[in-house]
Every structure is written in structure tokens, then in C-alpha cells.
Specification:
By secondary structure, the chain is α+β, with helices and mostly antiparallel strands. Helix content is 22%, strand content 36%. Its main location: membrane.
Length: 255
């Protein structure tokens, strides 16, 4: 193990010219070989940065600066998309209105083919079969959004159901069934009397209300969505095993 020798104090500086203000200090080391320890003041020791700082700095230098033109272009694209979709909606509404005005399609015509009480307990259920006729020769009807059907007796709602979603070709009559279920158990008094009296038939008058949305369609053209309300007044001779429709009247209104 090598011995360490302390550094001897430096000799006093030799001033070549006492009148010169710039003094040169010369540190003379001893000629004897060995290992020496140099002590540096603490305020002159500088912290070495970690190596990852250099990679972060290089990545920031290599990263392309954000272009103001690119940001401006993105805003223009968003604005153009909003205007484009707004024009599409406006054109759709205009063409839908022109379609309805120029072609003047007629409303669908409804009629009741069968009306029957299919279940009495726990909650009564009524099965109704409708015919809907599309009298337009070139315009189809698209029934959508699952409308509603309600059954009333003496202006009191006693059952309800869902109107089906379907498409009807021009000049076609379509048949469909709707099951109406009562919200409360038990039959109305007049309905119960009509069910029990098979020999002496007790007639019952009902009112059916249908609410649905539909679009008229011809090729690629479609009308705006229209709301329809249908009211059917029907009178049954009996609700026993054998039933027969005595009279009916249906009216369709477009909104």
C-alpha cells in the first residue's frame, strides 16, 4: 500500500514586477514521486447531470415544431364537417317536404277483422287482427318506431299493446295481430256478462286507438317522418266462444 504524503504549503509568490497589478501565482510540486491528495473547496464541486437528461434533450431537439398551419387546417376540417352534416339534414328535410307535396300519398286505411278475448286470468288479454291497406300505386309505407295500440270501454282504457314495425309495398293489404293486455286483473262488468251469457248474447262496444310513425317511400326517396292517429269503433255481438263483428268504423289522421 502506497503511503500518502501531505502536500507541503506552496512557497510565497515571486513577484517579478512589484508594480504590475496582474500577479501570477505558481504552484510548485515536489520532485519526489508518490500519491498526493488534492483538496478542492466544497463551493467549487459541481453536480454531474444523470445520463437520461441527454436523451430527453436530444428528443426535444429532434421533435418537429408544431406547425400553426396544421392546427389551422384541423379547425377548418371540423368546421367543414359541421357545415356538411347540417346541409345534409337541411336537404333531407326539404326533399322530404317536396316528396309529400308533389306525390301527395294517401293515408293507410285500417279495418278490424277479428276481435277475441283470449285470456281472462290473471290479467285479461284481447287478440285483435287488423287489415291495413296501402292504396298508393307507387309509394310504399314504412311503419317504424313501434307505435302503441290501446283498448277503451266507455271512454276508459282497459288494455294496451304495441304496434309492429313493418314495411308495406304499394297497393297491398297487410294483415297483422296485436295482443292487448290489461294493466289490472279482472274483467269489466259488461265484458264478464258477455262472456258468460252464450245463449242470450250481450253486445259490447269498444274503441281502439292506434298511434304510430311512418315514412312514405318510393325508390331512394323518402318522405319526412309523419305521425298517424287511428281511431276504430267496433261493436261485438258477444265475447263468448263465438264472436261476430256487428259494426266498425275507422278513421286515420295524419299530423
Amino acid at each position: 500500500m502506497e503511503e500518502r504524503e501531505s502536500l507541503p504549503p506552496p512557497p510565497p509568490p515571486n513577484l517579478e514586477d512589484s508594480g504590475n497589478k496582474n500577479h501570477i501565482k505558481t504552484l510548485q510540486l515536489p520532485d519526489k514521486p508518490g500519491t498526493y491528495v488534492v483538496q478542492v473547496p466544497k463551493d467549487q464541486v459541481y453536480r454531474v447531470p444523470p445520463p437520461q437528461n441527454s436523451s430527453i434533450a436530444e428528443s426535444r431537439i429532434k421533435a418537429p415544431p408544431r406547425d400553426a398551419k396544421t392546427s389551422r387546417c384541423s379547425w377548418y376540417c371540423v368546421l367543414f364537417s359541421i357545415i356538411f352534416f347540417a346541409l345534409l339534414i337541411l336537404l333531407g328535410a326539404v326533399f322530404g317536404g317536396l316528396f309529400s307535396l308533389l306525390l301527395s300519398p294517401t293515408d293507410p286505411e285500417f279495418s278490424i277483422v277479428k276481435f277475441k278475448l283470449v285470456e281472462r286470468k290473471p290479467n285479461p288479454k284481447y287478440d285483435v287482427t287488423f287489415h291495413v291497406h296501402n292504396s298508393n300505386s307507387k309509394v310504399g309505407i314504412l311503419y317504424k318506431d313501434s307505435g302503441s295500440v290501446s283498448l277503451s270501454l266507455k271512454q276508459r282504457n282497459i288494455a294496451s299493446g304495441t304496434y309492429p314495425t313493418l314495411y308495406q309495398d304499394p297497393h297491398v293489404t297487410t294483415s297483422f295481430n296485436v295482443t292487448l293486455e290489461a294493466s289490472k286483473p279482472g274483467l269489466p262488468k259488461v265484458v264478464e256478462q258477455s262472456v258468460k251469457n252464450e245463449k242470450e248474447k250481450v253486445s259490447v262496444a269498444f274503441s281502439l286507438s292506434i298511434h304510430f310513425h311512418a315514412r312514405m317511400k318510393m325508390g331512394l326517396l323518402r318522405s319526412r317522418k309523419m305521425k298517424f292517429d287511428v281511431t276504430c269503433n267496433v261493436k261485438m255481438d258477444s265475447l263468448a266462444k263465438t264472436t261476430r263483428i256487428l259494426s266498425q268504423q275507422c278513421q286515420t289522421k295524419r299530423h
